[in-house]
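Target protein
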Amino acid sequence: MTTGSTPLLFLHGYWHGSWCWADVIARVAALGRPAVAVDMAGHGLRAERPRCLTRRPYAPEAVATEVSPVAGVDLDQAGDLLVSQIKELGRGGRVTVVAHSMGGAVLTRAAQQVPDLVAHAVYLTAFMPASDIPAIAYVQMPENAGELVAPSVRADPAAIGALRLDLSSDDPAYREQLRDAFFGDIPTPLAEAALGLLTPDAPAGIALQSTTLTRDGWGAVPRIYVTCARDMAVRPVLQRRFIDDADAAFPDNPTSVVALDSSHSPFLSMPGQVADIVTKLG
């Protein structure tokens, strides 16, 4: 490990878990850099799964109506959990946090709360919402036209408190849509294995709440945005909007941008490149 390098903390996005960073962590660890991947509130080992997807006989109508067991999870909880994870890893020192997709909204909240503990905020094709704008507001913006995630949601988030994917579906067209949304440049067997590890319900509250950003809070944290040119979940034009809006709000701390020619999940399709990007940060 190079002198002065900070520990790396990896945070996944909606429906995923700390497992998705395994290949990146292996490469980072080989370089001697301390690193850990954590589960977001309501995900991974902190998740609860709706009964409707495993109940037999299967009742498809329940997929759209059963209230999610993670409906109470919100951005306040997710942000506080990430702050505690940063403090645990850093032991009073600074940590570089790498967030993917909706994890970006959680990173933004945590960095606003403890800017002195975040050495770099790295947004890997992630939501990087502007001040007082909830992440959900960006999903249907014109800049995100053509994304495949919203069409894959199988219940009204306002009714069940979550964004639900029907991961038990055997509809070939639906499963192909999910693969294209998240894993478009990944071989089908690996993409199917990843689908099998997803959590069906993503807590809507994380995307519904917003964070007020200040110049001495989030605006003071060095930020890096990694764009993904073939992303069908967070479209490239929306990625650019996040960068432009942040730079307009905090021009004295411009965003560093790194480009990848990947789908939404470069931690699976090109883990070596992702590891290389983050390990070059101090």
